[in-house]
Amino acid sequence: MSERPADDAGERPEGRPADARPASGPESGRRRPGRRPGAADTRGQILAAARETFSEKGFDKATIRGIARQAGVDPALVHHYFASKEGMFVAAMELPVNPDEVIPTIMNGPRAEIGERLTRFVLTMTSEAEARQPVLALVRTAMTNDQVVSMVREFLTHALVNRVAAELGIPPIRMEAAFAQLFGVVLMRYVVKLEPLASAGIEELVELLAPTVQRYLDGP
User: Cβ neighbours of residue 116 under 8 Å, at least 6 residues apart?
Assistant: First the structure.
């Protein structure tokens, strides 16, 4: 039997018997289950492939299977890390919220208070610099890049606007108006920094804006 190669220092590790054999069994020389050999950051590979695919094809035409192929992984592994294409987009673009999680929260409660819940959520979420910066960065990029603006439009339409409009039974244009109202306020508040809007408190703005947002959602 050939001898085990010497350690880098030329000595056996402290505490190892002189006649000890190399360890064998499931704990020896194997990576943990679920990780491919040589793939130390499979999730990172998927996200990199997702960013490239979304940028090239837009949100609508990108597919989980296509992103998996680009990343060199099985589609089931993509589903393991990201429950949906929307969730993968959120992670790839480093957005602060996932529609799959937010929409049920906003819809849970009296319909007459959805405008207030939606308004408070958007204003509260964007009040934190760490949360709003990726959103504003994506908006700024979309203003000068046709591919990015198409990707953002498709995501907002299918992941947010149409889903909420369908649940409320209203035309999508009403949801678009509600989102436009709120994100217009966010841009004026944090990009233009228009006063006194920029320094107004969240509850003050909720009281001011929620009735108008609710009116959009109460349509026939």
Answer: 206, 210, 213, 214
**214 Cβ neighbours under 8 A, 6+ residues apart:** 112, 113, 114, 115, 116
Please tell me the pTM assigned to this model: 0.64
Kindly provide the b/e burial profile for residues 80-119, where b requires at least 16 CB atoms within 10 angstroms of the residue's own CB.
Answer: eebeebbbbbbbbbebebbbeebbeebeeeeeeebbbbbb
Q: Which token pair is 192?
A: 């233009």
- Reduced DSSP (H G I as helix, E B as strand, rest coil) percent helix, strand, coil of the chain, to 5: 65, 0, 35
**For residue 65, which of 49, 51, 43 has the smallest C-alpha distance?**
49
For the stretch 14-48, pLDDT in tens is 444 444 444 444 443 443 334 444 345 888 888 88
pLDDT tens, residue by residue, 135-176: 777 777 777 667 777 777 888 888 888 889 998 999 999 999
Domains of the chain with CATH codes: 42-92 (1.10.10.60), 99-217 (1.10.357.10)
Helix, coil or strand: residue 64 = helix
Q: Which structure tokens are listed for 202?
A: 């969240």
Token readout for 156 is 């907002």
pLDDT tens digits for 70-112? 888 888 888 888 878 888 887 887 776 788 888 898 899 999 9
Cβ(77)–Cβ(104) below 8 Å: no
